Amino acid sequence: MIYKRQRKFFSEAYKTGEHGWPAEIPTRTVVRFLKEIKIEKPEGEVLDIGCGEGRHTIFFAENGYDAYGFDMELLAIKSAKRFAKIKGIKKNIHLFIGNILSLPFSHNIFDIAIDYGCLHHIKKSDLKIYIENVSMVLKEGSFFVLSVFSTKFKHYDHFFTKKDIRQLFKKAFNVLKVEEEKSGLHVFYHCLMQVKTDR
Fold first, then answer.
1. Looking at domain 4-195, which CATH architecture does it have?
2. What is the pLDDT of residues 72-115, one digit of tens each?
């Protein structure tokens, strides 16, 4: 299932190129979190949820991980493949059309998952499926990097407080960090979590 409103918005954004977020440069928070993650997970498989034009998928591949990135928009995936080709990344990157609510993976595949800006587009009624799917594909002790809009940024979909995040993920994840970032009109929470061994 792909929501019609989101599909229309992102389809137009990728057609015009006027989407307002960087296409190629990984965010400072993701770069910093990876330095911490590398202590325990210096290699392995990474899943980039809603990867867009692949800036974080490519970043993980450049750091030696086997990186998988998916997005619902064909134009975004085409751009991601083009950027990966320009950087000479071929063997350890996998980019495809996909949907977090219907993943094509079995259990316990990935060592790291990242969602930079997907969760706040998920309907409340589908949050349980989202969390179950992310938890399902991650191995015990794996890491999850999440960035979402906070309630302080009035975007058009869903917003989160720190309490919301901890409550939503407490069953399967230990929430290690929740950091707030203000960038122009945007207010994000950047989260670092680790899958519980007794989930």
1. 3-Layer(aba) Sandwich (3.40)
2. 889 889 999 999 999 999 999 999 999 999 999 999 999 999 99
